[in-house]
Amino acid sequence: MNMDPRPVVEAAGLTRRYGSFVAVDHVSFRVGAGRTVGLIGPNGAGKSTILHALMGLAPSEGRIRVLGREPFRERAALMRDVAFVPDVAVLPGWMRVGRAIDLAAALYPRFRRDRVLAFLERCRIPASHRVRTLSKGLKAQLHLAIATAVDARLLVLDEPTLGLDFLARRAFYDALAAEQSQSSRAILITTHQVDEVEPLLSDLLFVDRGRLVLDCAVDALGARFAALEAAPEHLIEARGLKPFHERRLADRVELYFEGADPATLARFGAVRTPGVADLFIARLGGSAP
User: Fold this and answer.
1) What is the pTM of this model?
2) CA distances (Å), 157 to each of 19, 36, 82, 214, 244, in order?
3) For 84-128, what is each residue's pLDDT tens digit?
4) Of 3, 179, 198, 229, which one is least surrounded by beta carbons within 10 A?
5) Which residues touch 44 (CB under 8 Å, ≥6 apart)?
6) Structural domain boundaries of the chain?
7) Domain 9-209: which topology?
């Protein structure tokens, strides 16, 4: 796989204001080719606002470059190399399924029609049906199938599996992971199903109240963060090491540390690398993704 060393997405000081309200506050990050980045935060954190700025759908302050282009000024050219799935399906209800596929093929020269046709066959959806006749779940799946069939350099997914049941979500993420293992395409994804998407991610961006609170590669989490299940007799001493979060469970207490020595922590109990969902809650002090 030939990876372009230049970032696919580069944001520096990205800020978005609505009057006196600052929805996104000086956010800076990069997304490299072949990386799958989870943009994770609670409702109202600014996730969709960030994506809209990156897609050129709204003006913003700061410096943004997506595939070397300034999104708001060069959106038409940018979208030839970007596939974007917003958090609501946008296929018009009056349109026939086959026509929607034809339109996508006309808009994107590198559209993989065979992928969408395989989806239609698997779900037994006639191309002659109108979009409005499909169930909510099938509409979402059709929208995803069309967007992910674009051989884009950047795939942006904003809560892509809303409306899908567990089996459909699992099938989508499994297929996306299989494709990504053979691709240099970058993916930027927001989701509330953190546990389900975790195996797909290579990088994490946590946002809260419009600010970036964590930017870390998944394979670096173990070296940076640790969760200690402290033995009762060592709990007070372990608290003296200044954890940034304490989680009380039914019969035990977990302490979360950043930059602590694992050997030192192991003297006080069992140590593990926290999962993405646990780390998110710990980092944001109890907010739910």
Assistant:
1) 0.86
2) 27, 11, 11, 20, 31
3) 887 666 678 899 999 989 988 887 778 888 888 888 888 888 889
4) 3
5) none
6) 9-209, 220-283
7) Rossmann fold (3.40.50)
